[in-house]
Design a protein that fits this description.
Number of domains: 2
CATH topology of the largest domain: Aminopeptidase
Low-confidence stretches: none
Structural class: alpha+beta
CATH class of the largest domain: Alpha Beta
CATH superfamily of the largest domain: Zn peptidases
Radius of gyration: 24 Å
Distance between the termini: 19 Å
Mean pLDDT: 95
Number of helices: 15
Helix content: 25-40%
């Protein structure tokens, strides 16, 4: 089935309406990270359901599992014998935060068009995906009254807080959501104008480090130089993770890291985005070196090599600082892991390096902060060929096959639940998108092409012989 010209024309003619739909979603501050916006999370789930119905999906409902935030669900199953595509997105967002010199240039809860981009909290992560997926669905149902494939669409409400209920939801609703292929629009494009399919994701191993030297703080004029400073002890311990420009100095950390094949390394190094691009995109200050290993491409470093980051550190409030020797200090260490590292082994390696031979004999505890397994797939086969052709037809150039330094923990388990279904991760943001940060945005032209890509994908999957996607 060739992509229906009427569907593509509908996307073009109704683009401003789709921008309005995204604007309505962005307007709801559905922040899931602070516990203070539950009414807004309920509101955005209901609004997503309303937009699903308007697109033409059926059996639309707000679903839950246990005490989860609401999921919006809709389906269209009127294509017997054709593949069923599972569309995933999420409607919860991060809080608004102005940090340092970075400030919002427009109201984060009002979708604002500026210089070819659409600005607003959630525009890229991930409300733009909701509208893009519903746009492709609408393009067919509003013109032909039918889709080339069957569609099941789930929009989650707690992705930004770790999706702790998602796998339970999948198992509880396994029969309802069973599908042949998975489509997720929550990853990036390498640069604007260049579509990208992500085939690997790093995982996470988190550890909470706590140091204690005494039961109570003591005036620094009384005990300074006598009492072990817990904050300084913590810093000494954390300094053991400093890798300069080599490997992270954790024994056995790299033992199971799967090396790139020669073909993969060649492909990575042929991609755009050298050191100057990274420095510019990340706002690196003049004179500050990048921390990557010498001789390693930045993409290889972030896609296929592990990393360690201190994401939080606490001993006392600067605002309420007092002349005291502090008895307690803590930090959260986040490790990004890659194929074929084992999360439990990585935690044990991290725990050992942080607890051995503590400064002044302070008490050090390292607690498990949770883990997400890495994911990697072979980006070949009928479904990936259909996706590649779809992107080429939409963007005018073929996609780059890329990795991602971030994590989407459900992709691997859901693919297994569906019997090895191919997972197609379409890029929606780009290096300027700033998800989770001030001035989050979408490139409007790429967003248009994402919708066109999905419309082409539906048609291409419908043409697969016998509906076989793998």
């Amino acid at each position: 089935m060739t992509t229906d010209p009427a569907a593509l024309a509908w996307l073009k003619d109704n683009h401003d309406r789709l921008v309005g739909d995204l604007g309505a979603l962005v307007q709801v501050p559905s922040i899931s990270t602070d516990g203070d916006h539950q009414p807004q999370i309920e509101q955005t789930a209901a609004l997503t359901c309303e937009q699903m119905r308007r697109a033409g999906l059926q059996n639309v409902a707000v679903l839950r599992t246990g005490d989860s935030n609401p999921y919006a669900y809709g389906e269209w199953l009127g294509a017997p014998g054709k593949p069923t595509v599972f569309l995933y997105a999420h409607h919860d967002v991060q809080p608004v935060n102005d940090v340092g010199e970075a400030k919002w240039q427009s109201d984060p809860w009002t979708l604002t068009r500026r210089d070819g981009r659409l600005y607003g909290r959630g525009a890229a992560d991930d409300k733009g995906a909701i509208t893009a997926q519903l746009g492709a669905v609408s393009a067919y149902l509003q013109t032909k009254g039918t889709l080339p494939v069957n569609v099941k669409m789930l929009v989650e409400g707690e992705e930004e807080v770790g999706s702790s209920n998602l796998l339970g939801f999948f198992n509880e609703h396994k029969e309802r959501i069973q599908s042949d292929a998975i489509v997720v629009c929550d990853t990036g494009n390498l640069e604007t104008g260049l579509p990208s399919i992500t085939y690997s994701l790093r995982g996470i191993v988190a550890a909470v480090v706590e140091v204690q030297s005494a039961r109570t703080p003591v005036h620094s004029g009384v005990a300074g130089g006598v009492l072990a400073d817990a904050a300084l002890a913590l810093d000494v311990i954390l300094s053991r993770l400093y890798w300069k420009n080599g490997r992270v100095p954790i024994p056995h950390f790299y033992d199971k890291v799967r090396p790139l094949t020669d073909a993969e390394r060649k492909a990575v190094r042929a991609l755009p985005g050298g050191e100057e691009t990274w420095r510019s995109d990340c706002g690196v200050l003049p004179g500050v070196r990048l921390a990557l290993q010498e001789g390693v491409d930045p993409n290889e470093q972030t896609w296929r090599l592990p990393a360690v980051t201190i994401i939080a550190q606490e001993a006392s409030s600067i605002k309420n600082a007092s002349n005291q020797v502090l008895p307690k200090a803590s930090a959260i260490v986040s490790c990004r892991i890659v194929p074929d590292q084992d999360p439990a082994e990585v935690f044990a390696q991290l725990q050992k390096v942080l607890t051995d031979d503590p400064p002044w004999g302070v008490r050090v505890t390292v607690k498990d902060g949770g883990a997400v397994k890495w994911w990697m797939t072979d980006p070949t086969g009928p479904a990936f060929e259909a996706a590649t052709t779809a992107m080429r037809d939409a963007y005018g150039k073929g996609p780059a096959s890329i990795g991602c330094g971030g994590s989407i923990g459900f992709v691997g388990p859901l693919a297994e639940l569906f019997g090895g279904a191919p997972a197609l991760l379409f890029g929606i943001d780009d290096p300027r998108s700033n998800p989770h940060a001030p001035n989050e945005s979408l490139d409007e032209a790429d967003w248009r092409n994402l919708m066109r890509s999905l419309a082409h994908l539906f048609a291409n999957l419908a043409e697969l012989p016998g509906g076989r996607v793998k």
